[in-house]
Amino acid sequence: MFLEAFLILVRTERNSGAWCPSKQATTEPEEWIQIDLKTVHMITAAGTQGRFGNGQGVEFAEAYMLEYWRPKLNRWIRYHNSKGEEVCTSG
């Protein structure tokens, strides 16, 4: 499903200020945001924010993981830090 880009922008309350999965998230990577940067880039930071929803509740991702696509390998690769450890951020 393609969504408007503004739904994944931080520091905004537009349309409740968040992208949300279509169903309750689980520990399996069933819901995702995919961004096509068109060319190879080095990503140095990623950030998330919770959703205030105009006072209807505070919601936020308790954890997320990062994966990237390598065209030559034709697969997604889970991000690891410089020590080779898999990174899964948690709140």
From TrEMBL:
Residues 1-91 form the F5/8 type C domain. InterPro entries: FA58C, Galactose-bd-like_sf. Gene3D superfamilies: Galactose-binding domain-like (2.60.120.260). Coiled coil: none annotated. This is F5/8 type C domain-containing protein. It comes from Cryptolaemus montrouzieri.
